[in-house]
Structure formats: C-alpha cells, structure tokens
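User: My instructor asked us to take a sequence, write out its structure as tokens, and then describe one feature of it. I'm not sure where to start. Here is the sequence I was given:
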Amino acid sequence: MPLSIEARRDFIEGVVPLSFWLARKLKREGMPLFEALTVRTNLYRMTVLFDGMNHPASGFQDARWNALVAALQALFDRHKDDADSGALERAALEHMRPFIEPRIEDDARAWPKPEERPFGFFTYELARLKDGRSRIDLHLANPFVPESPFAAPAARAAELLRLLADAKARQPEADSVHCGSWLNALKPFQELFPPEWAASMTAPSELRYHYGWWGQFIDRTGGFNRRNGEKLRTTGQFPFPCVGCQCSAASLRTHLLTRFGAGNS
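Assistant: Let's start with the prediction itself. The structure tokens for your sequence are:
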C-alpha cells in the first residue's frame, strides 16, 4: 500500500529536530553550521527547494537555502548557551515548517510502490570501474510499507535473482555486485548475500546527507525510527554506519539458490 501522509509527517517531525541536534553537536565541535546542516544532514532534501537532482552539498548554488541557513544561524546563536537543544530544535523546526510542510504530501505520493519496481526492494545501475570492469550497484527502498522488507526474505531473494538476470542481459561482463548503505551492517540484510559480502565490508564512509546514512531513521511504516534516533542522541554515534560491501555476481546467485531455493531462479 502507498506510504501514508501521517507516516511521512511522523518521519519529518522526528528527523528534522534530530538533524538540528546533530548540527548543534557538530558546530560545537568546530564545524561551520552551513556544512553541518547542508552536507551532514538530510534537511535540504526535505524542503521544497530540492528539485530532485541538484544539491548545495555538491556545489549547487541556491540563494534561498543560503538565506534559510543564515536565519537558522541566528537561531543557533540565540540558543548557544542553552543547557540542552530542546528550545533550539523547536524554534528551528517552526522556522523551517513553511519549507517542509508543502512537500510532505508530495513525498508520500512519490514513495516507491510495488507495481513500479520490478525488483521490489532493489533497483540497480551498471557502473564502469576504472579498470574497465562493469559492476552492478544496488539501491534500496521499501515499497512494502508498513511491512518490513525483511519479513519475506525469500521474496527478496527472488527479486535479487531477477535483478541479476536483468543486469547480465544488459551487461554480460558485469561480474560483481556492490552496495553502500547502513543496511550492510544489519544481519537480516547480510543474510541475503554470501559470506564474502560481510567479509568485504569497508570502513564507514564520510557522513553525508544521503539515505545511505539517514535511511536508518525511517522505520518499516515509513515513519520515524525513534529507537535509532534516541541512540544517536544518547551516544553521539549513528547506530549503523554506512559501509560498502561487494561480492561476485556468480557467488550471489549461488547463495540465493542454495539458501532460498532453486524455485526462485
């Protein structure tokens, strides 16, 4: 079923204050506020300023965002001596509300739907590596809300097998599969892949605004994951780092057929 507007609003109402909490922490550690808000949080993508492609973290100039950050800077300065960030979070959320509220319904409607995704939880692109080899890069989104994608691992296995077949038909020499995401640190996700997947895990990537980091604050319903949000607030660390993993396409196919059954082929 489609994502509900209520679930999307729940996510926004939780993750925006959390983003301000993190920006305050990073600013106190010496990071310029513009970098903390623009590069390290997902805030810009939740505003009506985001066109779906261009982002100030990648050099795009948006005068409206610059003005918004300047106004938020004034709020941060006003609350700099507060014992906690609660008043700042509330004031900053209200200041941003005209920029985020009009987008909530549109984002709920645009949420991925099963009928639009031939590979379900997965999409992919073919990447050409520097050594000339081709690689299958996985991207992830849950079109099954409010169900967890891991409630049906055999279905996810079947989706991956279809994806591999499609990628091989398009690019027969694509011989490896890669994904960079916080989900690589999650056991149910790792179980979809052969042992070499987890064994290849990289060090965490640099914290950025994308869902490879920030997706862990979306729960299975599309709302705000309060448990993970609270862990960030109490520890100062993201519960799951964004890491990269990879394996060969052949070993992934063998693993899926062996573990989840040849009927998926």
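For the description part of your assignment, you could build on this observation: The mean pLDDT is 96. Try explaining in your own words what that tells you about the chain.
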